[in-house]
Amino acid sequence: MPVPWEALIPFALVTTMFGVTGTAFSITKRAQNDGKPPRYGIDTWDEMMMDRDKRLTGSARGQSSNPVAPESFATNSAWYTEKSQ
């Protein structure tokens, strides 16, 4: 049975376009996560730590090794409406 060579051109185009879109999607996801792979299975603890990291460094994926928090960390809490006792 002969190979229908004219069918290889659309097959190559479809395969290439799936590869291009998958690669572009991966690049955009990594760009949004500061060059790190995306997180999966995030629970409440992870969300709290990501919020803390965002308040400390300005990025949800950024971490700081500085033992002293910046001055703005004391006033940019999510609990700004709660009265202190």
UniProtKB/TrEMBL annotation:
Chief localization: mitochondrion
Membrane topology: Single-pass membrane protein
InterPro entries given in the database record: NADH_Ub_cplx-1_asu_su-1
GO CC field: mitochondrial inner membrane
Subcellular location as annotated: Mitochondrion inner membrane
Region annotated Disordered, chain positions: 52-85
Keyword line: Electron transport, Membrane, Mitochondrion, Mitochondrion inner membrane, Respiratory chain, Transmembrane, Transmembrane helix, Transport
Compositionally biased region (Polar residues): 60-85
Annotated TM spans: none
Family of the protein in this entry: Belongs to the complex I NDUFA1 subunit family.
Role, per record: Accessory subunit of the mitochondrial membrane respiratory chain NADH dehydrogenase (Complex I), that is believed not to be involved in catalysis. Complex I functions in the transfer of electrons from NADH to the respiratory chain. The immediate electron acceptor for the enzyme is believed to be ubiquinone.
Protein known as: NADH dehydrogenase [ubiquinone] 1 alpha subcomplex subunit 1
